[in-house]
Amino acid sequence: MSGDLAARQAELVAALVAGGPLPPGFAPAPVAAARRALLRKRAGDVARHWPLLAAGLGPAWPATFTTWADGRPTNGSLRDGWDLARDLRDRDTLPPLGAEELAEREAASRYDGRRPPRPRRLPALARTGGAVAVQVAGRVRLLRPAPR
Amino acid sequence: MTGPSGVGIGWRPEIAGFVAGLPGLRFVEVVAEAVAPARPLPDGLTELRGRGVDVVPHGVRLSLGGAEPVDPARVAHLAGVAAALDAPLVSEHIAFVRAGGLEAGHLLPLPRSREAVAAVVANVRRTQAELPVPLALEPIAALFDWPDDELDEADFLTEILDATGALLLLDVANVHANARNRGGDPAALLDRLPLERVAYVHVAGGAEHGGFYHDTHTDPVPAAVLDLVRELCAGRRPPALLLERDGHYPPAAELRGELDALAAASGHPVVT
């Protein structure tokens, strides 16, 4: 059971954040509790980076986030919130506040879903769920709020 | 070394105004990864430094317990923060936070094995070699154990501290949480730890959730944790104790009450 701490640590992290199998010998219930605690902590971290998205979902935020994030390793709070917001948009379940926050982020930065977002150098217009945001010289303005 | 003294609180931007208004405050802690040493410090921290308040950088992402060597850039950052704050010491955890290219997002426990002791000791030495100040190590709270422990908690921690000469950052709430969730007698564990090496103590709140006690830092400090503080300080009083609060900030009066309770339980002067 010893000799390869690196591999065993990797197995444990995969079980906790990437839907991997429980490594041999661990008690299932406490590890499952730790997995859920990590998801709740992550929900709080992402809410700090995406306050309007979280506020728009209100009491549904923790469950919405943890359902989406379970088994999906983090790419950092900024990208996690971005990926979730796009996912909700594609399923027509993004709340207006979240649509406005996403439109502003999309106008400000270019994000391909695979690498960290990069600030746009040219002026840009972004539309999301009826919200329209514009960015010129790094300044972002919401032109049209999302319909309520 | 003159380390931190008295009752302190974790400095967070959300409560910077509250912290600035504590007249007797002599030390705070700041999350090291939240400070950029090359840029100007947050105003609140500059003011506290100007008042002679010690600011201790507290790292959370170094992964000293990882089987891989610590990232030199993260060590350099921690050293840079210590220098920028003219800190008396820095602290980090006996834990790992990433493996196999995946971030866990929080502190994970190590097996209490010789192999893990060797990994931590090697990483602590790599870190100490670059730091301008002493390093204090904090044992974490965990919900589960590894199946192959060779040592008990006290021996595991003592071996790491002896081999590295590091100081101990004792988290009394973690001691409480581990006893609740993983068994064992918290007072008996305190008796067996090298308390003469304690640089300061962490105290935080938590809550019961799904049959486990969670060290949330977003709930009030339970009476059982204050009882442990009292017990610890009745024996050998640590030079400093710090309240950690990381969210769901209560009204100022409630937070002052928690600091006062900590002062009363420890016998240190009131800071509010």
TrEMBL record, chain A:
It holds the Pfam family SCO6045_C. Residues 92-128 are annotated as: Disordered. Residues 6-89 form the SCO6045-like C-terminal domain. Residues 102-115 have a biased composition (Basic and acidic residues). InterPro entries: SCO6045-like_C. This is SCO6045-like C-terminal domain-containing protein. The lineage of its organism: Bacteria, Bacillati, Actinomycetota, Actinomycetes, Micromonosporales.
TrEMBL record, chain B:
It holds the Pfam family MbnB_TglH_ChrH. InterPro entries: MbnB/TglH/ChrH, Xyl_isomerase-like_sf. This is Uncharacterized protein. It comes from Micromonospora marina.
